[in-house]
Amino acid sequence: MFRALAHCAVNVARASRPTVTQRVITPSLVVCAQRNASGGGVMSDEEFDSRWVEFFSKQDIDDWELRKGVNTLIGYDLVPEPRIIVAILQACRRLNDSASAVRVLEVIKSKSGPRAKEIYPYVLQEIQPTLDELGIKTPEQLGLA
Amino acid sequence: MSYKCMTLLRPFGILPVGLSHVAHVRSFEFIRFFLAISIQNCRFLNTLSQKGRTMAHQLMRAVPRLVARRAFSTSLARAGGGAGGMPAWQVNPRNVYEDRPDFPMPNVPYVSELSDAQKALKAKEAGDWKSLSDEELKELYRLKFHKTLAEAEAPTGEWKTVVGGTSLIIALTFVLYIIQKKYAMPAMPETCNYEWQEAMMKKQLQMRNNPVEGLASKWDYENNKWK
Fold this sequence. Notes:
Chain A: InterPro entries: Cyt_c_oxidase_su5A/6, Cyt_c_oxidase_su5A/6_sf. Chain A: Keywords: Heme, Iron, Membrane, Metal-binding, Mitochondrion, Mitochondrion inner membrane, Phosphoprotein, Transit peptide, Ubl conjugation. Chain A: It is a peripheral membrane protein. The structure holds two protein chains of two kinds. Chain A is an all-alpha fold. Helices cover 66% and strands 0% of the residues of chain A. Chain A has helices at residues 2-16, 29-33, 45-56, 63-75, 82-94, 98-112, 116-134, 139-142. Chain B has nine helices and two strands; from the N terminus they run αααααααααββ. Chain B starts with a helix and ends with a strand. Chain B is elongated, with a radius of gyration of 39 Å. Chain B has four domains: 3-88; 97-153, Cytochrome c oxidase subunit IV (Cytochrome C Oxidase, Chain D), CATH 1.10.442; 155-185; 189-227, no CATH class. At the A-B interface, α4, α6 and α8 of A face α6 and α7 of B.
């Protein structure tokens, strides 16, 4: 008797449920095969520079972030754009770290490799206003080169 | 001990806190073990009063606390290294000062303990950098960094030592070889004599060994000479 009652109740419940289209979710092979790091487009040079400028422009940047940023940036196969270097120098100023500012200029020269004679003067020329504004001396002026 | 050495030792449980620390932990563990055994004995023999047992328990519980306090005080050493604490490289092996062009900003400054004059200079650095003289800027640089990148990359001339030392060792082995040859080694076997080999050759020719393409084919038997 109870079984019959229960059966009845289930039927009532089924009948009262609104009809909805149910989407069957089947795991797709395409989704499974997608790797986490393979998504996303290629970052444009412009975006790369902007993101690094944004990183170094953080107002309350700390010592560790500055070191980590510079070390990582130097790890890439490139010489940073002058506007990134300006952001780094200003970060050094906020941290009252004149030594690191000089070091950054040095590492730009070292990073330019065999083309240091073309790239380094160009970078210096581009960042000259910042150097003057902050009172940063180049390693050559300090006799540290 | 170098950074590499420390990382090599790590898997073997030797942490960069120094062996004395480990030794202390071991001795405390021993004391604790000893106390535990004696308490069990007391319970078993029921010779100790309730008060005495509690005291022993308290003592036993105090031991790990002592150990913990000691461990804590060592691990609390200043990360920058210096006064009263461990050197920075002991706190974290990555905190090693090194001048590398591919890692231009080391995790620790070259000079971590500043004198009063240096502290004053640091305070001045917080102000306008234009008011700093070249000498002061240089000194600030040398506080933070040991060598400039140019100095770090400058050739050291070490290759001369390496080449010289290697040549010396090779020369020494020749000397040893000559001495051995002269005084230590037995004489060469007689098959290595010139006479023996000549006789061997003659025999081969008499036997007309390898007459088509080999030895005998190259000997002119009518004129008794090499073709």
